[in-house]
Amino acid sequence: ILKRGKRMSIKNIIEAFPYKIVEVKGKKYVFVGYNSAIFELDEVDKFILDNLPESLENIYQKARIAFNNITIEALENRIIEMSKSFIIKNNDAEEKVEEMKKTYSWSGNPDTVILMLCQECNLRCKYCYAGDGEYSNPGIMKYEIGKKAIDFIAEFCGEKEQFNIIFFGGEPLMDFRKLKKLVEYAEYVAKNKGKTVGFAITTNGTLLTEEIEHFLIEKRFNITLSLDGGEEVNDANRFYANGKGAYNSTVSKTENLRKKIAVGVRGTVTHIDMDLLQRWKDLKELHVKNINFSPSVNMMDDQDYEKMITSFFESIDVYCQAIREKKYNEIKTMGYVGKIFDKLKNGGVRLKNCGAGNNMIAVDKDGNLFPCHRLLPYIHYKMGDIFTGLDKEKCGELEQEMMIANYPKCQKCWLQSFCCGGCIQENLVMEDNANQPYYNYCKYMEEVTEYALKKYLQLVAEGIINVSQN
User: Fold this and answer.
1) pTM for this model (two decimals)
2) What interhelical angle do 302-324 and 439-461 show, nearest 10?
3) Closest C-alpha among 210, 284, 290 to residue 252
4) Strand-pair category, 27-32 with 19-24
5) What is residue 2's predicted lDDT score, i.e. its pLDDT?
6) Residue 170, preceding bond cis, omega within 30 degrees?
7) Distance CA 224, CA 216 (A)
8) Which of 106, 170, 185, 325 could form a disulfide with 121 if both were Cys (CB 3.0 to 4.6 A apart)?
9) What is the distance in angstroms between the CA of the first residue and the CA of the last residue of the chain?
10) In terms of DSSP bridges, do strands 19-24 and 360-363 run parallel, antiparallel, or are they unpaired?
């Protein structure tokens, strides 16, 4: 909830950015689509919004009936104040967006590379968007390719003090020996350049050994475990080629690791089970630090989304109660709820859904460059290779494609800067159009975010959440 700033002029025809008004404990608030900011409204503010788009004179003619003592000067000042907060459109906001487009571009310096070390996997998960981890191009990255990719990101990150390497697949532990060599090489490069290097891995954990465990701990890896929930839920979709479920193997192989260091979990949600809260309860018993869920969009129908939305409401209720009771460990583990509350608190103008291509790039096993690992099967998104470098013209084209300004459906949405149209790979799967969010995703985001917004404002009203004033 923000304070309002400097004076500015208003347009002849006054328009508002997309917004959502909610009422909590007798007070009205507006959530602004331009910058995901929240403001408290009084009767005059709401009256103005209810009568847009319109000229100042016409609004005044209506306002003088609704509010006996209001003057046109007072009304104009109120509109100017709302413009300062970017509730109402103004030239400053539009100029700011254009400036951000210039600076938020592929000409920046990604500092993170996703190494597709193994484009194959020892599991056969039903929902795998990579097709058994192969991305239509099975195989394992050669050591020389990995080295060159490390050289590339270490150089490309420019003056940044640290670059980061994420080992991904498929299942990256299918070639631990090569992973180990590449880590050692990355440390060598970092030392020579006067930088530091960070490491991360996403793994199903079934190939973990004592040697691998010690290595991951020693090198301070950020570890994300692929696990969907309890045994029954997990093994319905995650299993070996022979059909045997992977849950017991994953849990037993990672037991010591989870006790020694913080491990995160990413679970995939399908029609098998929509109960996010129960999944969270089962997973937090494994003593992991953070739990996130993502829907498998091509394995869910309208009814599945309805169930998931209801379950998300329940998770939000539990999260809010944990805040009230200061159960910090529980709060930390509910990453899938916490990220929504963090965005509600922080707000800000966002032009893209994620940092693909700007903060990170992916290198496939053959050395081709993509904005994100999920886009490997789509040749349209190839942005160069580690041998010849980035194709700057192609990067510019992709940058514009991925901007929320090029999502027609999102232009009038109050969540425009909050979700930015969703994951483009999921849009491609569901709509065959990266810039077309599928309707169930929109419904899911709108209902979940509105429910979270009301609960967030209740906590603010109770004085439990402190809101910084800007």
Assistant:
1) 0.92
2) 20
3) 210
4) antiparallel
5) 42
6) yes
7) 12
8) 170
9) 8
10) unpaired
Amino acid code (one letter) for 447? E
pLDDT at 123: 96
Q: What residues form DSSP beta bridges with 164?
A: 112, 198
Which residues partner with 436 through β-bridges? none
- For 316, the token pair is 């939000």
d(CA 37, CA 255): 42
The answer to whether the beta carbons of residues 63 and 78 sit under 8 Å apart is no
450 residue type, one letter: E
Could you tell me which of 7, 155, 193, 20 has the C-alpha nearest to residue 84? 7
> pLDDT tens digits for 191-246?
999 999 999 999 999 999 999 999 999 999 999 999 999 999 999 999 999 999 99
- Residue 229 has a pLDDT of 96
* CA–CA dist 258, 261 (Å, integer): 6
Hey, what long-range contacts does 447-450 have (CB within 8 A, 24 or more apart)?
A: 447/309, 448/309, 448/312, 448/313, 448/316, 448/340, 449/340, 449/344, 449/415, 449/418, 449/419, 450/20, 450/22
Q: Residue type for 421, please?
A: G
pLDDT at 208 (0 to 100): 97
What is the model's pLDDT at position 470? 34
Give the sign of the dihedral formed by CA 131, CA 135, CA 136, CA 141: negative
**Residue 262 corresponds to which amino acid?**
A
User: What is the 3-class SS of the chain, one letter each residue?
Assistant: CCCCCCCCCCCCEECECCEEEEEECCEEEEEECCCCEEEEECHHHHHHHHCCCEEHHHHHHHHHHHCCCCCHHHHHHHHHHHHHCCCECCHHHHHHHHHHHHHCCCCCCCCEEEEEEEECCCECCCCCCCCCCCCCCCEECCHHHHHHHHHHHHHHCCCCCEEEEEEEECCHHHHHHHHHHHHHHHHHHHHHCCCEEEEEEEECCCCCCHHHHHHHHHCCCEEEEECCCCHHHHHCCCEECCCCECHHHHHHHCHHHHHHCCEEEEEEECCCCCCHHHHHHHHHCCCCCEEEEEECHHHCCHHHHHHHHHHHHHHHHHHHHHHHCCCHHHHHHCHHHHHHHHHHHHCCCCCCCCCECCCEEEECCCCEEECCHHHCCCHHHCCEECCCEECHHHHHHHHHHHCHHHCHHHCCCCCHHHHCCCCHHHHHHHHCCCCCCCHHHHHHHHHHHHHHHHHHHHHHHCCCCCCCCC
Phi and psi angles of residue 401, each rounded to the nearest 5 degrees, phi first: -60, -40
Mean pLDDT, the chain, rounded, equals 92
Block residue for tokens 């090489």: 185
Over residues 138-156, the mean pLDDT reads 96
Question: Which region, left, alpha or beta, applies to residue 87 given φ > 0 means left and ψ of -120 to 50 means alpha?
Answer: alpha
Kindly report the number of other CB atoms within 10 A of residue 331's CB atom: 18
